[in-house]
Amino acid sequence: MIKLNINGQLTTLDVSEDMPLLWALRDVAKLTGSKYGCGKGICGACTVHIDGQAMRSCITPMSYAKDKTITTIEGLSEKGDHPVQQAWQTLNVAQCGYCQTGQIMSASALLANNASPTDDDINNAMAGNICRCGTYPRIRAAIKLAAKSTNNSNGETS
Amino acid sequence: MIKKVSRRKFLQGTGLASGTLVLGVQFAPVFAANHEPMSFSPDVFVSMDETGQVTIISHRSEMGQGILSTLPLLVADEMEADWQRVTVKQAIGDAKYGSQNTDGSRSVRKNYTKLKEAGAIMRTLIQQAAANVWAVPIDQVRIENHQAIYQNQTIDFKNLVKIASTLEVPARESLKLKTEAEQKYIGKPGMKNLDAHEVVTGQAKFGYDIEIPGMKTAVIARPPVVFGQVKSFDASETLKVPGVVKVIEMPALTPPAAFKMLGGIAVIADNTWAAIKGREALKIEWDHGSNASYNTKDHEAVFIQALENPKEVVRNRGDVEAAKKDASKHLEAEYHVAGLAHATMEPPAATARINGDRVEVWACTQTPQAAQGNVMATLEIPKEKAANVEINVTLLGGGFGRKSKPDYVAEAAYLANESKFPVKVLWTREDEIKHGYYHSPSYQKLSGSLDVDNKVTSWYHAMVNHPIGATFDPAAKLAGSTDLGQGDMMFDVPNIKIALGETDTFMRIGWVRSVTNINNVFAASSFADELAHLAGQDPKDFLLQMIGSDRIEDFAADDFKYSNYGESPEQYPAETSRLKNVIQVAADKAGWGQELPEGTGMGIAAWRSFLSYIAVVVKVSTDGNKVKIEDIHMAVDAGKILNPDRVKSQMEGSAIFGTSLAFYGEITAKDGAIEQGNFDSYQMSRINQIPEIHTHIIKSDAVPTGVGEPGLPPFAPAFCNAIFAANGVRHRRLPLKNLTLV
């Protein structure tokens, strides 16, 4: 039995310590928004926030996730209206959509640490997330749009 | 004729409010006993219930091209439905919808008219129903945004459902389709993806995400070499892994591979991790079979020999050899493109549940009907019981042709049947890369002659690859396909020879996005650029000159049996004017001809594929072995455009797919087994390597054509032509192993 906080809820999962967090989330907690893409931490489809940091859940064993605070795409916002989620819809970013939850988790972690990222900042933060359909230019634009809308609503100039 | 119904009868009808009007776009509707009352079948695309809610069936698979958000526009627009009152429903696999095979970039062109007609039938019936209510001629009733309007009166669609459902379905020939000016959704920018909110909140369901009660998860250890077999295995350690419930030996694969299961040992477990760990614990001795003799590296010599001795000339005009003798300048070049894997972000996945003689499947499939047929063949279910096999289509996390090959669906059905559990088969990334249906490695030889005026007088293009045909017929040796990027070249050259070589095949070969256009157009468009430089002319101007006069290309005149993507040349002619136009537009928008800094260059390529005309201009800067893509412009003429934003996204995706294959795409076999296995050994381009991509859509009244694939073929050659322009180095082999993309 491993205890951890998932999306604000204290949760106990009956899984082995070596099970990657990704499979615990998907198969046991039934949260399938985090995706499998490579199992090696090189594509980013499985990205979640662990204690606020964007991390690859496919290579994070439950022994590490134990007692930590996990945010998955399902818990990023209550109504699915995080500025990044909104910007993604405004710019019709997704094609197949499979990698996008991981992209959004990486993007939201970036913006939490850097309110006005430059193109280079975005490229550095997002280079670990593969999109095979080819949505990279729109991802860049959507992150900038999300930053702008957040900064505007905070009364700052963008 | 549409029956008139009295106003009194109409009012009675609406009072009951129980009707559902379901229309098919084919006539002779057949009542199906197991459907809701008043449902019609087959060919059912649109229905409306008594609340006025319209349901439109999307019978093609959504894999990122936006078809779920695009095809229904045709119906909704034509029937003047309020988009807010439309529900789009994914069809199960059923022959009543016609072909559901979502590949070949043809969903729009194959369904454009029939879906518009479905909408028009609904509109006409609503209009007639309203006319009957008001007792006025039908042409005095206007239909707009879910309302029938007569003078200052309106009736909502919901109040016309019942009466409309009693009317005779109008004949297709009698329908009046909307003019372009009357369209509300079709061709308009800013249409939102229907599944956007589900995608960004993690609620969208892909094949990998299916969960049904009592389900187990399976992964399979497949033979490393195609047609290899299990000699012996020991599952004792596997069965000790907590969560593993069963180990099942799969039937061995025999030729032809087709869509059959690959064989191997399946591990069935309570969760994915247990299945993966259980598979790792298997001890298997393989008989690798005869394909173990295949080494990609060694086969190069076989390919080259086949290339030098082509077996079949498929297009011939004039005398290429004579032209060479008379030439002022002559050039020969050989090109190579490596084997490629699909690498869909979501690897193949399928779930099956068997209950008595009923089989239910949930799968990310591009072709639910082929999946249905494959399940029936695997479980030996007779044809007449097709209705017992239900294929539910999930969202697809990418397709690119991989998911039109339903071998994985057969695996799920087989394991559900053998284990007596509902089973979800998941392919890991390694499974996907190592056990694919690959784009074949290819070798190509081109030669061309110039006369004293630097006009091209001959064009020779020979190609050899492992043919896709060998996957279905082991005797197939002749390379394919000339129709895709080789024989279909539209250069006005007096002497042409297009030839194919033959060779054996040692792995499963399949179609990957744009198929042999990838290698053929790379070679042909690179060679066109080489000839331009040989002639000392601007590559864009030279390309326009080679294409020549405005005309419809007559391939048949050269005894070339060109399939034209299965369409008639009358309806979908190959028009040189349209090809030249996209070249000019892409060049103009990119600022072609401007002075560029040292080490920077632009390259151009253009081709007609999937009946669409695409030109690409790429700008790169180089620094030693480092290459940076500075800018990409794409011009696309795909006839009438339904959803401009999704056309743009397909062009963006094609350029990025092209970048990956140009830089990294290389599948190789050693002793018959694929050497690559994940995104470390089979890399993809990343966000930091991709600049802005500008798409320029040509406004056209021509019949709509494809956009999923045709953006890809011209990208790699435009890119390599740009590198040549930047630093004078010509690259004839993909991937570009000695360069670093920054």
From TrEMBL, chain A:
PROSITE patterns reported in the protein's UniProt record: 2FE2S_FER_1, 2FE2S_FER_2
GO MF annotation: an example: oxidoreductase activity
Pfam family, any one: Fer2_2
Residue stretches making up the 2Fe-2S ferredoxin-type domain: 1-76
Alphabetic keyword roster: 2Fe-2S, Iron, Iron-sulfur, Metal-binding, Oxidoreductase
Superkingdom in the source lineage: Bacteria
Keyword Metal-binding: yes
PANTHER family given in the database record: BLR6218 PROTEIN (PTHR44379:SF2), OXIDOREDUCTASE WITH IRON-SULFUR SUBUNIT (PTHR44379)
Protein name stated in the entry: Isoquinoline 1-oxidoreductase alpha subunit
Organism whose genome encodes this protein: Marinicella litoralis
Automatic annotation (TrEMBL), chain B:
InterPro entries cross-referenced by the UniProt entry: Ald_Oxase/Xan_DH_a/b, AldOxase/xan_DH_MoCoBD1, AldOxase/xan_DH_MoCoBD2, AldOxase/xan_DH_Mopterin-bd_sf, N-heterocyclic_Hydroxylase, OxRdtase_Mopterin-bd_su_IorB, TAT_signal, TAT_signal_bac_arc
Protein's UniProt keywords contain Signal: yes
One Pfam entry name: MoCoBD_2
Alphabetized PANTHER family for the sequence: ALDEHYDE DEHYDROGENASE, BLR6219 PROTEIN
Domain Aldehyde oxidase/xanthine dehydrogenase a/b hammerhead, chain residue ranges per copy: 201-290
Keywords: Signal
Gene3D superfamilies noted in UniProt: Aldehyde oxidase/xanthine dehydrogenase, a/b hammerhead, Aldehyde oxidase/xanthine dehydrogenase, molybdopterin binding domain
Molecular function (Gene Ontology), one example: oxidoreductase activity
Protein's recorded name: Isoquinoline 1-oxidoreductase beta subunit
Alphabetized NCBIfam families for the sequence: TAT_signal_seq
Keyword Signal applies: yes
